[in-house]
Structures
1.
Amino acid sequence: MKQLRRLIIALGALVFLGGVLTAQDAPEPTTLTLGGYAVGREVYGSLLEAFVADWQAETGQQVSVLETYQASGALSRQIEGGFPVDLFAAQLDPEISRLVTAGLVGEDWKDTDGYNGISNVVIVARKDNPKNIQDWQDLAQEGVEIILPNPGTSGGAQWLFLSPIGAILRDQVEGFSADDAGVDAYLRGFIANVSVFDRDGRESFLTFERGVGDVAITYENEALKAIEAGGEYEIIYPASTIIIERPLVVIDENVDNIGNRDVAEAFVVFARSEAGQLIYAENGYRPLTNDIELPEELAAQFPELGDTFTVDEQFGSWSNARSFYFGDEGLVTLLIAEIAGL
């Protein structure tokens, strides 16, 4: 599939502004550093590889790439503290808001950078779905062992919790009232069934791949990648699920200090382009818009979804959702401490 996203351009003679770009004319080499959430390692590695080739073909400039991946919340705090990355691929908006407050990212980041890859939350069962899991309500019943990351350390885990919570509030989860009481009742059964709270989304799904648990709550892109790699799993699409919007931003202070703003901003543009969105799709992410026409075999991996919602649509904002569910006195935080002792 990767041959679909770009043509390999010979580096012997590059055409630039109507003439031949010689080695003497080429700009000085530069470096581009990206920090990203753990599960994004493959897609951003592929995007950077393609971008570097295209950028050199267009400008003659060689770009060396440095990458680091870990739990997104922890990485956001490190960037706030001075960790020198040029680009940050985050799991959720509040991790960018922290950097806006610190003066490292502009307040208009959604207009200048914005979202690049989107996904949704799914349930992954083992081959033949031995526990007969059909939807969110089944995960709050006794006898189901769940694997998912800890929302205290993983921004991605907050997506995974908000998906069933939002579905309940939208009256899409059988047996649970569409109010705070219904959410509380559901979460008590759900959290009691979690056998492992890993540090981040990648570690969590690796735990599941090692044979622990009956189901994993994860992102569609992670589930598709596991099946492509030979995993014998069944993806269960809930009747209602959250749309995951993942930000990609330039860290203004860092690129200005290094002098590579043009390259960093060009990467963000490339990620949103048709070529970049095709790379996202190859890695299990849905394109940002329906304007991107995917090859048939790629489009087939994305079934039509039922009821969907975003954080802003269902909870008003990330600030609201985080304070109510994941703050120090948030419902999820308190229930995990009470039930799991974490």
2.
Amino acid sequence: METHVQRLDIEKSMKENMMLMVGGNPGSMVALVDMVNSTIDVDAEGMRGLSHLMNLDSLGIYDDKIWHLYSDICKRDVNSAVTLLRASQLGLIDRTLLVEACSRPDRTGAEMFNIPNIYKLVKEYLPNYGPLK
């Protein structure tokens, strides 16, 4: 995985950090707002969505890549997007594969993951994890 300069800044507000993450992409901002408001990951709720931003930041998924994850790969289903992020964090899917999928503007990244199967793996690891829908 190529190295990147992380964008999150502990001294900035959540809104400011979200702006840093999306780089002006309005679709990516919609995706981040949905992720921050998602309740599927009960074990991460104490962080109020910050864990999703931290995971994206650690992967180097910014700007339009956030939109590709949310819209193209996950068909605008926030629970699927959070599940892929959580699975990558837990080592259940290859992090470099997720980054590669998010880098594909031609929508072929969607073919790289079986989200219902990945959800089952996350649910086995985190019994409190909410329903995929």
3.
Amino acid sequence: MTYTFLQQYWWILISLLGGLLVFLMFVQGANTMLISRKLTPTWRRMLLNSTGRKWELSFTTLVTFGGAFFASFPLFYSTSFGGAYWVWILLLITFVFQAVSYEFQNKRGNLLGSRAFQIFLFINGILAPLVLGTAVGTFFTGSDFIIDKVAMTDPSSPIISTWGNNWHGLEALITPALILGLAVMTLDGALGGLYLLDNMEATADGKLDKVIKGGIIGNGICFVIFFVTWVIILCLMNGYAVTAQGTVVLEKSKYLHNFMQMPAVSFMFIAGVVLVLTGLWLGMFTKSRKGIWPAGIGTVLTVMALFFVAGFNGTAYYPSYADFQSSLTIENSCSSQFTLKTMFWVSLLIPFVVAYIAYAWRQMDKTHISEKEMNETENKY
């Protein structure tokens, strides 16, 4: 088990967690439909109970994603989470709103009313994927930070990284990274609709399906526009390449070169996009209620491919446009070989955790959410 193998292994694992997180945020995407006036109170309650049984999965995956980054690439964690902290604080606040909203919106004595908490869920559905996608977009566009490892030896101010402006990450919202954020936001909105079709029982008149399909079509079309725009920008933009001597330099069309020089990653990316489009097609234009599965698998593959393009093939995955040599690579930002090796053995437990999640998921979704259940069952959100 060489140091290089362990570094690449943990980047692959981080990429997988990132893909799963984007997929599982269909919960947030589905909640953007809560403010639709076309939903009856019963249908809105069905939607809440459909997503309410899954929200812990997306939150747990977010925590795991952050924890894995901290353990395997601590310099990224300290730089991004410590410098661009407004982005991560905003993301966590929206998740807090989500948890509180599910639990309290229908409690007796609720002074704000259920509608206020549903608006909180809507805000979470918009901001969480938007902020996360924009943050990942900075893996390509770069951020405003400087790394000074020598500062660690200064007892008066042992700060290894400093942020170059007072926006602390929010400046990414006015860069091309926002386009990827918009793509993730609309993708999760479409995935949320696909999940609702699979998880909720159709009404006798079919009107609920029409409302859900309307959301899938609107989000799906916007996603295609934003995603195609992002891919074009990505292939044309200059990238941050790492030379054999470890120097970071700008390279014209670096990310396009990465796709061309890593055919397996290109195949993964194309396969993922095709699967996402297949799932969207099934949800938009057919009677199939299973579009969430090809779209979900495609989402994971596509996000993983983007992470690979950002970090492999001699590329700085967290570039600094303030100081190129401060840019973070898989090699210069990872933990020690001992730490990575120890965590490697721990990571072998992941398949068992995934198997448990799959079992719990199947048990929760064995029976579709129905109007009858909302009218007869007390144990519900």
4.
Amino acid sequence: MSTTGLPVFDTTVQQTNLWLKALMEQVGTNDRHLAYGILRASLHALRDRLGPENAVHLAAQLPMLLRGLYYEGWRPSKTPTRERSVDAFLQHVCRELPQLSVPDIETGVRAVFTLLWQRIDPEEMGKIVLILPQGLRDLAGTPSEAGPAPVS
């Protein structure tokens, strides 16, 4: 049964819910709003760090609804940002999630990177990670640290 009357919209809502559910499990929360906030803030910080061309390549890998969230508020002329350390990147995320402490944000950001490794093309994710400075590469992890892709 269609919820929206358009299969393309129903599919992207379903995919987005699967992403949120997986993130909630990784973070250990039942709070969908928190998972959404962590995903949104982490994707925005990553998008801003990548620069326009690479940010667009990542966006192409996301479900349609998440792609809209990803582009929300984007100012390509202000990118890439210059965060080179994990602390600076986490502070960027923290500006969108002021209700969380840095250790909680780091757990959330690592979970988002794990989700990206599991849900998008690993080759594309590998290219994205190589663009990042070494400190942020460590935060992003590797495909082996992400484990197998969840069954959807």
